[in-house]
Amino acid sequence: MIKTSRDRMTDAALFEEAPDVFWKGVAERLKWMTLPSEISDVSFDKDDLHIRWYADGTLNVAENCVDRHAEARPDDTAILWIGDEPGTSKEISWRELHHEVCHMANVLKARGVGRGDRVILYMPMIPEAAYAMLACARIGAVHSVVFGGFSPEALASRIEDCGAVAVITADEGRRGGKTVPLKANVDAALARVSGVRLVLTVQVTGKDIHFVHGRDYWWHEAREEVPTDCPTEEMSAEDPLFILYTSGSTGKPKGVLHTSGGYLAWASYTHDMIFQCDPGDVYWCAADVGWITGHSYIVYGPLANGITTVMFEGVPTWPDAGRFWAEIERHKVNVLYTAPTAIRSLMKDGDSFVTKYDRSSLKVLGSVGEPINPEAWRWYHEVAGDGKVPIVDTWWQTETGGVLISPIPGDPMTKPGAATKPMPGIKTALLDQDAKPIEGAGNGSLVLTSSWPGQMRTVYGDHQRFIDTYFSAFPGNYFTSDGARRDEDGDIWITGRVDDVINVSGHRMGTAEVESALVAHEAVAEAAVVGYPHDIKGQGIWCYVILKAGHTSHDSLGKELRQQVRTEIGPVATPDVIQIAPGLPKTRSGKIMRRILRKIAEGETSSLGDTSTLAEPEIVDVLIRGAEGER
Ligand code: PRX
């Protein structure tokens, strides 16, 4: 039986009184091969930065997420897979999950993949994606899942950065009635980088694909050739579990590294506390495994807790806006966890798509990935949740491994849009520009003043970047790059990123990445990208583009530039607005004034502030007129 801990006040009090006892309890949720006697060894001092949790403990993550439940409840459902095509679904029992994970692990081992090797997963939302993650964990390999909406170019750079030896993919992915050429993208990526000696492909659509002899294998064939049983590797708590690339304020995505014991303990603890599921409940996180939400709250958290987790191959709006609610009725789903962007896109199609289905099974509705606007929160609560179901607005990041600030069911629900209070064990502060803590109500930069087990340990291959990015702005603290407000009741409201990262449909994107994709086009001299408010996506991507001398704008240029970004990064980064401009607002020292570009894109031109320090102030009016034409 998994230990549960759902009383926030009790846990918070325990943490205050005896933090080590609290953290020991969090660790004891897991099955350890050697129970850790050490709790943590952490310093946020940038000259001596180190973060270690439960370091003398040993365990295997797959044993925790699979074997212990397969022994206790072999016939219960571990994964409920819901296919893209309405009406298709499959239940995978814990026994089957164990069987499949062992097979996949043995296929990897048989081809020389082992402890510490990096394996890229570029997969659709099929059970094999979870098998692959857990198979890596079983043998001590480190997975790095790349979202299927990234291009071959982006895939290649991730393969190269982590030095992957194997790629697991599918012939094609299916999403919203369309297909994604995953294996062809892998082939294109592998034409650019070396080092990959195994490509394992899951057959999904049956599309003809290209195979390289001696490198490429079908999963369904390879699994027939390996034994069913695969022992688990004994891993140190601090051994890496996975790398997940995420965007920052430079052009190059960072490989966020998470380790085994602390990450899993935190994913398990927060999943239990926030969603409060019991065995037999059906829990649905509608994210993609390509993002951290899919890692912690589709795969690791719920499976560690022995909870039936839904894997959904499709999209909320196909074939129509009733898809979520139809599946909730059909499978008696108890928890739905999704992003505000999905909620907003469903809202606009009207309530009848929701109300015609029975949603009485729902106990908790979760939100993640971006600030939820009060209107969307209310609709989620009142229409989707019939005014009865609590909303948990969970704030966290790829870097934090699991949720850090969130309401939990049972809290009074009076504040649409507030992430409310830190989880037990989490110490936040709001700092002003001089790094002084803001006491009581106020706005500031959100930092974590102490560590938690699910914290990332480093940027893969670039520890200095880890230190510079997170521990330099406010020495002694982890800086989230988010701004936040604390109200009179002490509740926290996330106000959004304060760096050059934008949040498009809950997908995190560095404006610098989009800029470097644009300038790779032969006609582009310079580009500046900002986010602007978008009704559905939360933020849209607005690109100011300066052409090289001798190039003029033409009808298909916008299309070409959009395609350029899709090629360099992928469809997830497709620009919404491309404004061809004669120049950019720059200071006399040549620095682009992004604040002005953001205001122009937002249409907030009455509050541009002081523009007199610009090298060419007259460019501002030209940009404003141009922007009006784009809106
Ligand atoms: O700005 C915050 C926003 O998403 C960022 C983290 O993005 P990512 O690493 O992709 O992880 C997304 C899933 C955890 C944060 O810096 N964010 C995430 N959740 C919320 C949020 N903003 C407001 N409210 C949230 N609940």
Automatic annotation (TrEMBL):
<dbReference type="InterPro" id="IPR032387">
    <property type="entry name" value="ACAS_N"/>
</dbReference>
<dbReference type="GO" id="GO:0003987">
    <property type="term" value="F:acetate-CoA ligase activity"/>
</dbReference>
<dbReference type="Pfam" id="PF13193">
    <property type="entry name" value="AMP-binding_C"/>
</dbReference>
<keyword id="KW-0007">Acetylation</keyword>
<dbReference type="Pfam" id="PF00501">
    <property type="entry name" value="AMP-binding"/>
</dbReference>
<keyword id="KW-0436">Ligase</keyword>
<comment type="similarity">
    <text>Belongs to the ATP-dependent AMP-binding enzyme family.</text>
</comment>
<dbReference type="InterPro" id="IPR042099">
    <property type="entry name" value="ANL_N_sf"/>
</dbReference>
<dbReference type="InterPro" id="IPR045851">
    <property type="entry name" value="AMP-bd_C_sf"/>
</dbReference>
<dbReference type="GO" id="GO:0019427">
    <property type="term" value="P:acetyl-CoA biosynthetic process from acetate"/>
</dbReference>
<protein>
    <recommendedName>
        <fullName>Acetate--CoA ligase</fullName>
        <ecNumber>6.2.1.1</ecNumber>
    </recommendedName>
</protein>
<dbReference type="GO" id="GO:0016208">
    <property type="term" value="F:AMP binding"/>
</dbReference>
<feature type="domain" description="AMP-binding enzyme C-terminal">
    <location>
        <begin position="513"/>
        <end position="591"/>
    </location>
</feature>
<keyword id="KW-0547">Nucleotide-binding</keyword>
<dbReference type="InterPro" id="IPR020845">
    <property type="entry name" value="AMP-binding_CS"/>
</dbReference>
<dbReference type="GO" id="GO:0005524">
    <property type="term" value="F:ATP binding"/>
</dbReference>
<keyword id="KW-0067">ATP-binding</keyword>
<dbReference type="InterPro" id="IPR000873">
    <property type="entry name" value="AMP-dep_synth/lig_dom"/>
</dbReference>
<dbReference type="InterPro" id="IPR011904">
    <property type="entry name" value="Ac_CoA_lig"/>
</dbReference>
<dbReference type="Pfam" id="PF16177">
    <property type="entry name" value="ACAS_N"/>
</dbReference>
<dbReference type="GO" id="GO:0005829">
    <property type="term" value="C:cytosol"/>
</dbReference>
<dbReference type="InterPro" id="IPR025110">
    <property type="entry name" value="AMP-bd_C"/>
</dbReference>
<feature type="domain" description="AMP-dependent synthetase/ligase">
    <location>
        <begin position="67"/>
        <end position="451"/>
    </location>
</feature>
<feature type="domain" description="Acetyl-coenzyme A synthetase N-terminal">
    <location>
        <begin position="16"/>
        <end position="65"/>
    </location>
</feature>
